Amino acid sequence: MHKHPIHTPSAPAAIGPYSQAIRAGDTIYLSGQIPLDPAAGELIDGNFEARTRRVFDNLAAVCEAAGGSLNDICKLNVFLTDLGRFAEVNSIMAEYFAEPYPARAAVQVAALPKGVDVEMDAIAHIPG
């Protein structure tokens, strides 16, 4: 099985030696997204809700570039520097996904790239 990179200017460019996503058959492995504005390549201004929405919007853009949507995500990993934000993430996530919701992990970490407080990566099934 071959790996094929997924790239879209609608999501932030990689800030290291990695792809926005990789397609392997019908499985899409989405790299971690942080609240970067895709056009400017800079962190967005705003509160935790705005930052979390930007992360979901970035993931959605990569899913769309692969021919799918957020609802094709089977596994979502949420990384937070403060697990006290768990309920806020749940509330926002419910606006972006329809049932059946993806399997998910939420993990508190000591630090994230560029000093952000939220990052998410995912695995999606998008027939190609």
Q: Which runs of at least 5 residues are low in confidence (pLDDT < 50)?
A: none
How large is the radius of gyration?
A: 14 Å
Biggest sheet strand order reads 1-2-3-6-4-5
- Counting helices, strands and paired strands, the structural category is alpha+beta
The percent of residues in helical segments reads 10-25%
Q: Describe the main β-sheet briefly.
A: 6 strands, mixed
State the end-to-end distance.
Answer: 13 Å
What's the helix count?
A: 2
Average pLDDT reading: 97
Residues in β-strands, percent: 25-35%
Taken in chain order, the helices and strands follow as: EEEHEHEE
The coarse overall form would be: globular
| Total DSSP E strands | 6
Textual characterization of the structure:
The longest helix has 18 residues, at 48-65. A 6-stranded mixed beta sheet has the order 1-2-3-6-4-5, covered by helices on one side. Helix 1 packs across helix 2. Strand 4, helix 2 (86-96) and strand 5 form a beta-alpha-beta unit. It has helices spanning 48-65, 86-96, and strands spanning 3-6, 21-24, 27-33, 73-80, 103-108, 118-125. It has 128 residues and is an alpha+beta fold. It is globular, with a radius of gyration of 14 Å.
State the gist of this model.
With 128 residues, the protein is of the alpha+beta class. The protein contains 2 helices and 6 strands. The two termini are 13 Å apart.
Identify the notable features of this structure and list them briefly.
128 residues; alpha+beta; 6-stranded mixed beta sheet
Topology record:
Blueprint: E1 3-6, E2 21-24, E3 27-33, H1 48-65, E4 73-80, H2 86-96, E5 103-108, E6 118-125
Parallel strand pairs: 4-5
Antiparallel strand pairs: 1-2, 2-3, 3-6, 4-6
Helix pairs in contact: 1-2
